[in-house]
Amino acid sequence: VFRLDKPSHNARIFIYGAKHQLVRTLQAGAMEPGDRTVSWDGLTNRGTMAPKGEYSFEVVARDAKNRPVPATPLRTGVVTGVVFSDKKPLLEVNGEKVPLSQITHVGVVREKTPADERLARPLVSPLPAGPPTGLRSPQGLGRYARALPGPAMHHTL
User: Fold this and answer.
1) Element (H, E) at 73
2) How far, in Å, CA of 42 to CA of 38, rounded?
3) Domain FlgD/Vpr Ig-like, which positions (predicted)?
4) Residue 1, exposed/middle/buried by CB under 10 A (0-12, 13-18, 19+)?
5) pTM over cut 0.90
6) Whole-angstrom Cα distance, residue 133 to residue 138?
7) Residue 133 in this model has a pLDDT that exceeds 90
8) Triad 34, 40, 41: Cα angle to 5°
């Protein structure tokens, strides 16, 4: 997932292996501003299936005058818990503790789970104040997106 702030006339997505070797180049063409999702079929530029492992991507977008258009990589994941550090809440996402200041969006998990009906019910009373319990929801609390510094987003197949 990445964000374009301006329209691009031409965009290419470069997918790199764990040692930053180019694995695949995708031609994305013209794109409107907004959040975009990278969809990769797992194939290399040679047409063979890439091995399991960590991959990163870089988006290079240009406008009609061939000027660079910034593309900000975003991360998504399932929130599995909320913890407090120095009296500040942190979301636990994919094993990381993420400050709320780095969260740009939280939404409902799209996959159907047994907890869907319970999660969709309105909360009728406020949550009690007190220390964190350390309890976690096995289905997660939602999804998040976080802007990352640097040009690449990591993905594990």
Assistant:
1) strand 71-85
2) 12
3) 3-64
4) middle
5) no
6) 15
7) no
8) 150
